[in-house]
C-alpha cells in the first residue's frame, strides 16, 4: 500500500472517531419550548429520547431520569407556556418500557383549572365525563390529578 493510501486510511479513521463530536448542536430554548408544547398538544410526535433531550435543553431539573427502564419527569425552572398558561412540570411515558407500547407526554399547569384548559384545548367533556378528544391517531386529554391540571397526548392509539 502506498504511503498516500495509508495516510488517507488513517485520516478516514480519525474522521470516523471524531464524528460523534460533530453531532447536531443542542436546540435553543425557544426551539425546545415550541417542540415540547407541540408534543403535549398532539401536534408533533417525538420519540421519548427526543422529548427528554428537549426538556434538558430547557435546563429542567430531572425529577426522574429517563432511561431504558424508566420514564422521565422534569421540573421547569422557567415555566413553559402551553395554550398560553404556565406549566411547571413535564412527564414522558415511554411505551416501550410498559406493556401498552403507547408513548405519552404530559404537561402540568401551575394555576389553571381543568375547565379553562379543556376550553383552550377545544376538548369538550365526553359522555364518560372526561375531557378527551381524538387528534388523528392520537388522544388529547385534560385531567386533574392531586389538585393539578394536566394536558397530555397519547400517541398512535389507532
UniProtKB/TrEMBL annotation:
<keyword id="KW-0732">Signal</keyword>
<feature type="signal peptide">
    <location>
        <begin position="1"/>
        <end position="23"/>
    </location>
</feature>
<protein>
    <recommendedName>
        <fullName>Secreted protein</fullName>
    </recommendedName>
</protein>
Amino acid at each position: 500500500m502506498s504511503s498516500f493510501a495509508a495516510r488517507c486510511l488513517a485520516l478516514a479513521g480519525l474522521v470516523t472517531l471524531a464524528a460523534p463530536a460533530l453531532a447536531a448542536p443542542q436546540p435553543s430554548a425557544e426551539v425546545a419550548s415550541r417542540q415540547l408544547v407541540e408534543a403535549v398538544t398532539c401536534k408533533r410526535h417525538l420519540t421519548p429520547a427526543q422529548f427528554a433531550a428537549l426538556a434538558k435543553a430547557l435546563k429542567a431539573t430531572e425529577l426522574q431520569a429517563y432511561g431504558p427502564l424508566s420514564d422521565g419527569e422534569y421540573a421547569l425552572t422557567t415555566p413553559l407556556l402551553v395554550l398560553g398558561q404556565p406549566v411547571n412540570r413535564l412527564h414522558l411515558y415511554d411505551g416501550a418500557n410498559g406493556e401498552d407500547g403507547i408513548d405519552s407526554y404530559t404537561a402540568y399547569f401551575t394555576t389553571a383549572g381543568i375547565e379553562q384548559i379543556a376550553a383552550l384545548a377545544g376538548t369538550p367533556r365526553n359522555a364518560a365525563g372526561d375531557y378527551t378528544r381524538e387528534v388523528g391517531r392520537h388522544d388529547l386529554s385534560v385531567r386533574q390529578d392531586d389538585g393539578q391540571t394536566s394536558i397530555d397526548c397519547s400517541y398512535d392509539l389507532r
